[in-house]
Design brief:
The structure is a homodimer of 383-residue chains. Helices cover 37% and strands 18% of the residues of chain A. The first copy, chain A, is built from 14 helices and 11 strands. At the A-B interface, helix 2, helix 3, strand 3, helix 4 and strand 8 of A face helix 2, helix 3, strand 3, helix 4 and strand 8 of B.
Chain lengths: 383, 383
Amino acid sequence: MRDVSIIGIGQVPVGEHWNKSLRLLGAEAVLASLADARVERPEALYAGNMLCGQLSNQQNLAALVADYAGLRGIEAIRTEAACASGAAAVRMGWMAVASGLMDVVVALGVEKMTDAPGGRTTTALAAAADAVYEGEHGISFVALNGLLMRRYMHEYGYEHDDFAGFSVNAHANAVHNPNAMFRKAISPEAYRRAKMISDPVSLLDSSGIADGAAAVVLAPTAHAQERGLPAVRVLASSVGTDSVAIHDRHETLFLSAAEISVQRALAQSGLRLTDMDFFELHDAFTIIATLSLEAAGFAPRGQGVRMAMEGAIALDGSLPISTMGGLKARGHPVGASGVYQIVEAVQQLRGEAGQSQLPHCRVGMTQSIGGSGATIVTHILGS
Amino acid sequence: MRDVSIIGIGQVPVGEHWNKSLRLLGAEAVLASLADARVERPEALYAGNMLCGQLSNQQNLAALVADYAGLRGIEAIRTEAACASGAAAVRMGWMAVASGLMDVVVALGVEKMTDAPGGRTTTALAAAADAVYEGEHGISFVALNGLLMRRYMHEYGYEHDDFAGFSVNAHANAVHNPNAMFRKAISPEAYRRAKMISDPVSLLDSSGIADGAAAVVLAPTAHAQERGLPAVRVLASSVGTDSVAIHDRHETLFLSAAEISVQRALAQSGLRLTDMDFFELHDAFTIIATLSLEAAGFAPRGQGVRMAMEGAIALDGSLPISTMGGLKARGHPVGASGVYQIVEAVQQLRGEAGQSQLPHCRVGMTQSIGGSGATIVTHILGS
C-alpha cells in the first residue's frame, strides 16, 4: 500500500447558511480544497453526510455535489456513519489512494441542519441512536448523553462544574478561528449558569446544530513531494465499532470502539500515544470528550474529566484538544465535523493555525464518533 | 493491487418481511454469506442502504447490523448512492481487499420498504431525484421514468407494447428463483392489460417495492485458492456519475454514467462487451433496461428495446439479462438490489443457478443505477 498525504484542504465557515443549499455548501468546500491542492479534477469524491435524506429529502448526495462542483462523471459515493460520516469519507478516500487505484481523491463532509422545520432536526438526530430500543421510546440524542453524564458523575463522584474546562477551553480556542460558529470566550461562571437542556447536560455541555462543509484532497505522498506541494501524511486511518444502543455495551461508561480504533491506528503508524502533539476529539458533549480521553488511553477510567480540571487539554497543556474550537465552539454540522477536525489538524501541522497555532507540532490524532460511541474513526496525521 | 474474489454469498428471499426488522434482515444475509464462505469473522462490513433514515429513523446501520450479526468491533460503514447503494458497498469492499488492507470483508445491501405508513415510501424514493429541481415540484420517481419512457417512444417511434419483452423475460426467469418475489410467468397479453401507474409506465414496466438483504464475502483470490473455496473473481469494479436531474443531462435519453462506468470496467478487466455471457442490468423500469443496454454499448441509440422485441435478452439469447428475475420480478429493495445482482451472477458463474442456469457461463457483467442515471456502478465477474 502507498503512503498517502493530504495535499489540499477547504472549508466553509460553520454557521447558519440559510442562503446556501446542501449541494452548494458541499461544492464550495470541494472547490476550495481543489484550489488549495492546485488540482482541477480528482478521480473520485467520497461525501460524508448523515441527514440529507431526513432533512432535505435528497439522497445520492455525492453525485449531486460532484456535478455542482463541475466534476460530473467522476466516481462519487456517500458514506454514512451518523456523526462520523465525514471521517468515514476520509477513510474511503485514503483507501482509494493507498490501494494504488486512484491518484487524487476528494473526501468531503457536508451537513445542513439549521433551516429544517421546528423539531425535525432533533427527531432526525435521534436516528443516531438505536431506533427500536432507544429512539422509539422518545428519547432524544441529547437525553441519551444526559444519562451517560449523570451515570459518570454518580459512578466517579464528580459535580457538573467539574466539566467546565472542556467548554471554556473550546470557546477560548475558537476565538481566533474564522471558520468557527461561536467565537466568544466563556468563563467558568457562564458555564455554571448555562441553561439546562437535558439534566445534567446544559447548553454549554453541548455542541451546536449547524450547517457546514469541509473537504480534503488525498494523493500519494510521493506525488505530492514531486510537485512540491505541502503534504501532511496520513499515518493511520482506522475504524472500530460497538453496539448502537448504550444499554447493550459491555461497560456503559467505556467507549470500546474508541479503544479499538485507537489501538488499530497506533499499530498502523508504529506510534505511541505520547507521540501525539494534540488530539482533535469528538466533543459533541463534554461527557463524550471525557469518555474519549479515557477510551483512547490518555486518561484512566474516571480520570478523563481531570484533564479538563487541571488544564492538560489547553493549548499549552500536555495534550491540547479542540485547538480551534472543537465541535463545541466550531459548531457541529454532524456529517461534516469529522472532516473539519482533519482540516484543522492539517492547519496545525502546516503551521497555518494562526493564533491557535501549537508550537513544535509534528503529529496529531483526530477522532470522530458516530452515535453515542457506535462507530469511531481515528486518523493520525504527521508533517 | 491484489486480485479479489467473491468467496461467499448470502441472501434473504425478497418479499414483504413485516416480521423482521431492518437489522435482522441485514444480519441474516451477512451470516448466510459468512457460512457460505466458511468464515467466522470478517474485518469489515460495508452496508449499502438508501432509506434507513427516512423510513426507519435509523442511521449508522452498518454498525448496527455488524453488532446483530455478532461482529461487534469490526469496521462498519454505510454506503449510499440511492438505488446503487448496495453495489457501492461491494465497490468499497473490493477496494479494501484489493488494497491489501484487509483479507476478508463483507459487502451487504439491505432495505426495508413495505411496512412504512402509506405514501411515505413513495415520498422517500423521490429523494433519489433532485430534491430542488425535481422532487420539490411533487414529481414521483415513477413519474420521472414515465417522462423518460414517453420521450423515448416519441423520439424513436415505439409503442408501449414494444417493451413487453423485458417484463415477460424477467418474470419467466424468476419462476425458478426461490429468492424472487414474483415467481409467476406473465404473457405479453398480461403486460398489455397491466394497470397504468404513470403513463406510459404500467405496473408491469415497474419493479416492485420490497424488503430484502443480500451479501457477498470478498477475499484475495490467492487466499481463496489456497483454502480450496469456490472463488468467483472480481475482474472489474467501477463507478460513473452524471447529473441527478434529468433535464441537466447532455442527452436526455443517454445514460452517460453507464457508458463511463462500463468503459472503465472494460479497461480494468481487459475484456470486451462480446466477452460477456450475461448482463444483470438495472431493470427498475423497462425504459431503464432499454437505456442501459444502449449506454453500455450492447445496442445502438434507439435500438435497446429491439433486443427485448427480438429475444436477444432471453436465457438462450445472445445477451441474457435478468437471468433470475431481475429487479422486475425478483423485487427491488432499492439499496439491496445491487448486491442481489452480484449474488445471482456468482450463482451463474458457479453453476448453481438451478433451472435458470446459463450454459457455458464464464464472464458476466452487473450494473446498478442510483437515481435516474446519476450514479452507475458496474462490476465484471469471472469464474
